[in-house]
Please model this.
Amino acid sequence: MDFAGKTIWITGASSGIGEGLATAFGRAGARLILSGRRVDALEKVAGRCQAQTLVLPFETTDLAALPEVVAQAEAFTGQIDILVNNAGISQRSLALDTEFDVYRTIMEVDFFAPLRLTQLVLPAMVKRGSGAIVNNASVAGKAGSPLRTGYCAAKHAMVGWSDALRAEIAQYGVTVHVVTPGFVATSIADNALKGDGSVNGPSDDPVNAGISIDEAATQILDALAIDTREIPVGRAGAAEMALLGLLRSDPGQLMDIMASMAPKVPRT
Model:
């Protein structure tokens, strides 16, 4: 896959992996559409990208507004070559302490919003006979991790949807790629939702010691360049990355490891 001259739309581009991807795709000669909620942050990222760039802020869960947003994106250069569904929110709460509305919010942001955006972008790709959908999932989309029941559910859904979508649309020349990051040093843990819907805030979460967003972006672009369908992203040999191999070789051991990591909380 060549990125030069391609129009690449990245959601969640104001920080984290989305920011890293924006600068990396820009260096590769792509034209960029950067989306998120924070206009000022998007403009700062755009200023660092060596590329023709459209800042297109929108709320991912405002599904009624998406058709107009897609029309604006397509009008930028005439077509979307690569859609990167990167926007998302995580969770840090036990299932027994999590309100139902928190689960609904996570599913809306992490699954239904990218699904709907893809539905609106995909027909033009199919008609043209080319294009790529890149869905940023997580290792948590493969392994059930404590304190992340809603996040795991949404990311598992994204992986399953992506795999089925890939099988259906390969015949039209459109590819689907799933990114499964482990620990990447972003604000994802700080911005995660607690059981009551409040924000987790600064913490010593292990994700903070992950690889940089630039390294993550390099790994993703290198894999996309050779049309890799499932793209693990993380530090080689890291414990969380080893879970992906364990899922295939010994799923029972993986489940036991996850259970051992769960906080032990007495309940009456």
DSSP finds eight helices and seven strands in the chain. Residues 30 and 126 are 21 Å apart (CA to CA).
